[in-house]
Amino acid sequence: MAAHEGTVDAQVAIVDGDGSVMSSMPFVIDVAMALADDDTEDEEEAVTSLIAAAADARAAAAEIRAAAARGDFDGEDGAPGAPGEDGLDGLDGYSPSASVVQTETGATITVTDEYGTTTAAIENGAKGDKGDPGADADFVSATATVNSSSGTPSVDVELGGTPGARTLEFSFSGLKGAPGDDATRSPGIFLIDDEFVNIGALAEFYATRGKYKNGDFVIDSASLLAVVTSTSSLNVDGKYQHLVKPITNIRSRRIGLTEGLDVAAGEAATGTFEVEGVRLGVGDLVFSPDTGCLATIPEQGDFDEDYVECAPVGLCQLATRSYVAQAIAALDDLSGTEF
Predict the structure, then answer these.
(1) Which of these, 52, 176, 292, 308, could form a disulfide with 318 (CB 3.0-4.6 Å)?
(2) What's residue 258's pLDDT?
(3) In whole angstroms, what is the distance from residue 315 CA to residue 322 CA?
C-alpha cells in the first residue's frame, strides 16, 4: 500500500546475458492513498502494474529498433563546415646516404641521416667446408670453320654441350691474304682451252678481267705459244676479250698421210690435199707413201680432229718399197741395153 500519494517517474530496463541493455521510455506512476488497509491487494496490483509496464516497455523498444532499421531517425546531411585553419609548416626534409666499403675481414656500412652518421662493421662468415671434387668433363667434339675474308687473322671459340660432355667450335677469319697487285708481277705462262689458227696472225680469247695482263704468254690446245697484246672492253657473259699474237708451235711435229703428193723440195703443191692425222697443224709433216714425197703444212685450210686440207710444200723424196716397186714396173725391158 502507498504511504504517500503523488506521482513517481519510472523506466524499465532489461539487461541481456551478453551485457546489452534495453530500456523503455520514461513513464509516470500515479500513487494514491489506499482506501483500505489491505497490503496484499495493493502489492498484487503494484506487481501487475509493473509487469504491464515492462511489457509496454518491451513493445516500445521493439518499435524503436524497427524505426531505427527503417531509417526513421536518420536526419538529412548537415551543411559543410567552415575550412579549418592552415596547419604548421613541416620540418625540412633530409635525404640519407649509405655506403659499403669492402675490407679484408668483411665490409663497413656507413649511413648518414639528419641525426648524424652511423657506422657498422660486418665480418665475413666462416669459411665453409671444401666440396667434393666434380666429375671430369669430356670433350666429345671439336669443329673448325674458315671463311674467305682477308685482313687480320682472328678466331672465335664457342664452348657448347653440357658440363659433362663439352664441344668446341673454332671460327677462323682473316686467314686469306690480300689480293696481289697484278701490275707488279712478272709475265707468266698459262694454258688455255682455246685454239688459235695461224702463227703471226692476231687471235682472241675471252677470260675474266685481270687474270691475264699484257706480256703474258698463253699456250692454246694445239700447242701454239702466243703473247697477250691487249685487253678490250668487249665482254660476253662477264668475260673480256684478250688479243694475242701466236709466235710459234712448241709441240713435236706430227705426221699425216695423203696420196698422190709428188713435189720437189721447196716446191708447193698446185692443189689442196686432204691429209689424215690427229690435230694436225702448221709445221706438221705430210707423207705420201705411194710417191715417197715428204712435205710440210705451210698453212691450214679446212680442218677437223682427224684431217686437214692444205697445199703441202715439198721437203724431199724418200725411196719406199712401194715406190721402188712401182718405178721398176714402169721401166721397159732392159735385156738389150748396155751399161
Answers:
(1) 292
(2) 92
(3) 19
